[in-house]
Specification:
The chain is of the alpha/beta class. It has 2 domains: 182 residues, Rossmann fold, CATH 3.40.50.720; 169 residues, 3-Layer(aba) Sandwich (Rossmann fold). An 8-stranded mixed β-sheet has the order 3-2-1-4-5-6-14-15, sandwiched between helices. Strand 10, helix 10 and strand 11 form a beta-alpha-beta unit.
């Protein structure tokens, strides 16, 4: 199969769809890999390294989209990229369609087959292609939250770890999944006072075993979420409903009652955000202030540590890329129900129910897309 890797064009997105080692693996399996010139500069890899791995370097995105049977990316296709997609072509990338009707309509109009990293599952019901970026984003959330708390950046002027004789900063993490767990590890490591709120009692018990009493664990009732947010210096939104829009956990009225200079980091912003006042930002202008509260809502947080993120992502995506390239998308999805869960759009129709429901649009069951009746 001819696999195309265009350079990412979302603002401040420096990751790459494939690393040179991943290219080498695909070429060793008999596939042709077409890489746009300059694709790897953001991860410290030049065209020579891709060519040495066996890739053919093409001058621009149009040439890659035109020649490739499958496009492998990191972020959702931008409007210009959607216009280059075509019927019968496979797109394999993060999509996050639920809060994005413009992209959804673009994919529908293209007629392509779009498979989303973020809805592929595993035998434990987890999301293995979302997990590595969730790990990165969770760890970054504390890092960027700590910087945003500095007075020069509009924050309260609180050092999360405190110093002897001074109370440490208070961190409230809404959601105890992959993002929340990794955020808590970083916050605990800095010496902050950490609270995790989650609605799953089994998960809270797991976190209790993991942290051994070093964090407070609360059931995420509306009352406890509000109480924790009002008391915190840093609130991290770490909730996820696979494929669907994120639930709103804090209203604007509640946020207005938070401590002036406190910080919200909304890791769920890719799915629409979990705070009523959230709106997507970029690495160039990552924060804004509403009612005295600093909001950090960068929609591609892992792009800020592009090299680490790209290698971590490729470790997870490569087996699926090999399956799609080796078998074709239809047979690969027939053989693997977990890959099948990634099918979001096919032949002008939405094939993921949660996306369709979030957008108020009709959908086609995956079985129908696969010709199973």
């Amino acid at each position: 199969m001819r696999i195309g890797v265009p350079k990412e064009i979302k603002p401040q997105e420096n990751r790459a769809g494939l690393t040179p080692p991943a290219v080498h693996e695909l070429v060793a399996h008999g596939h042709e890999v077409l890489v746009q010139s300059g694709t790897g500069l953001g991860i410290g890899c030049d065209d020579t390294q891709y060519a040495s791995a066996g890739a053919r370097i093409l001058p621009d995105a149009a040439a890659v989209f035109d020649a490739a049977e499958m496009i492998v990316k990191v972020k959702e296709p931008q409007p210009a990229e959607c216009r280059m997609l075509r019927r019968g072509q496979v797109l394999f990338t993060y999509l996050h369609l639920a809060p994005d009707p413009v992209q959804t309509h673009g994919l529908i109009e293209s007629g392509c087959t779009a498979i989303a990293y973020e809805t592929i599952t595993d035998a434990r019901g987890q999301l293995p292609l979302l997990a590595p970026m969730s790990e990165v984003a969770g760890r970054m959330a504390v890092q960027v939250g700590a910087v945003s708390l500095q007075k020069v950046n509009g924050g309260r002027g609180v050092l999360l770890g405190g110093v002897p004789g001074v109370t440490p900063g208070r961190v409230a993490i809404l959601g105890g999944g992959v993002v929340g767990t990794h955020a808590a590890k970083m916050a605990v490591g800095l010496g902050a006072e950490v609270t995790i709120l989650d609605r799953s009692l089994p998960r809270l018990r797991q976190l209790d075993d993991l942290f051994g009493g070093r964090v407070r664990l609360l059931f995420a009732s509306a009352h406890e979420v509000e109480h924790a947010a009002l008391a915190a210096d840093l609130v991290i939104g770490a909730v996820l409903v696979p494929g669907a829009a994120a639930p709103k956990l804090l209203t604007r009225a509640q946020i207005a009652r938070m401590q002036p200079g406190s910080v919200l980091v909304d890791v769920a912003i890719d799915q629409g955000g979990c705070f009523e006042t959230s709106r997507a930002t970029t690495h160039a202008e990552p924060t804004y202030v509403v009612d005295g509260v600093v909001h950090y809502c960068v929609a591609n947080m892992p792009g800020g540590v592009a090299r680490t993120s790209t290698w971590a992502l490729n470790n997870a995506t490569l087996p699926f890329t090999l399956a799609l390239a080796g078998k074709g998308w239809r047979q690969a999805c027939l053989d693997d129900p977990h890959l099948r869960a990634g099918l979001n759009v096919h032949d002008g129709r939405i094939t993921y129910r949660a996306v369709a429901e979030s957008l108020g649009m009709p959908w086609m069951p995956v079985a129908e897309a696969l010709g199973l009746g």
